Amino acid sequence: MDVLERAQKMQAKGEDIIHLEVGEPDFDTPEPIIEAAMRSMRGGDTHYTHSLGKIELREEIAGYYHRKYKVDVSPDRIVVTSGTSPAMLLAVSSLLNRDDEMILSDPHYACYPNFIRYVDGQPVFVKVSERDGFKYRLADMQNHLTPRTKAVLVNSPSNPTGNVFSAEELRQIAGLDQYIVSDEIYHGLVYEGKEHTILEFTDRAFVINGFSKLYAMTGWRLGYVIAPPEFVRPIQKLQQNLFICAGSFVQAAGIAALRECDDHVARMVKIYDERRRYLLSRLREMGLATEVEPTGAFYALANVKEYTGDSYTFAFEILDKAKVAVTPGIDFGKNCEGYLRISYANSLENIKEGLDRLQRFLQEAPKKGTN
């Protein structure tokens, strides 16, 4: 966020900044979603809903998981929330007691440890390597398990790496005794192979998902958690006290997204993939590509260890000199130092210009150990 805020200030002063740091779709929300919300509001659907969410939306979510993954999910296990961050907060709050541990990969989405610490839990970081696609090795996870380990968190496709767990990798993780918290917000944004839900392999799991990324609905704030049956009532009580319910007409928009927007999603996914392929070709050309190339979400890590051991400072140098905003790897954990996260949620024209600027910057930047 520091880079973004500096970039916005520079832009406000008239500087031409290319944004490759923002983790937000650059597409407008599809029209059927907007129309559904407008009909809902004009029809008087502006009041509280059931705290679990509208039954019509929960049934649509259950149907979506059955169509896509062939898993049976009862709508009674689904709690609709005002975005996936509340869904994560509710899940973690219901699951962890003081000093309970949750395993996270390093690197990881920057907010995960904050959710855990907020409820007095303890994040336990497992280093994952570039050569493994930044994915867990089962033995490494097992070495970090203790009697206090309550859960393991999986994010596939991943922010910041863009990598996708295979069915076998998820099956191994599901075989652990701990609960699994599976952040599936980037599901649908997969360009090679296919993604899998953790629910294909275990019911002792919390699935976090929503509409922000796949349907370009970040500002609508609509998500959900699919919880084990014994946790639904505790989560519902928390929802009633903290959030009451998700917006009524926003839930109507979510129904339209699931029913009417497959073609819109397919178009966006095709464009994302074109950008991804171009970005990866340029990273290879510049010698920055990672060993395992990403196949999901809309991110890629650039390995800049030859240039710096301080990605935070380096990102600001790039912003100040090249006028390109990228995210420093250190934001995602100590094990991501020496990387930059580049988002391709921008036009191909802007991505090309941004990478041209970055390449010129690197041609003039000294490598570590040189003067």
How do the helices and strands line up, and which of them pair or pack?
Elements: H1 2-12, E1 18-19, H2 31-42, H3 55-69, E2 78-81, H4 84-95, E3 101-106, H5 112-118, E4 122-127, H6 138-143, E5 149-155, H7 167-174, E6 179-183, E7 205-210, E8 223-226, H8 229-242, H9 248-260, H10 262-285, E9 299-303, H11 311-322, E10 324-325, E11 327-328, E12 339-343, H12 348-364
Parallel strand pairs: 1-10, 3-4, 3-5, 5-6, 6-7
Antiparallel strand pairs: 2-8, 7-8, 9-12, 11-12
What does this 3D model show about the protein?
41% of the residues lie in helices and 15% in strands. It is α/β, with parallel strands linked by helices and 371 residues long. It has a 7-stranded mixed beta sheet, with helices on both faces. Strands 9-12-11 form a 3-stranded antiparallel beta sheet. A two-stranded parallel ribbon has the order 1-10. Strand 5 (149-155), helix 7 (167-174) and strand 6 form a beta-alpha-beta unit. The longest helix has 24 residues, at 262-285. It starts with a helix and ends in a 7-residue tail after the last helix.
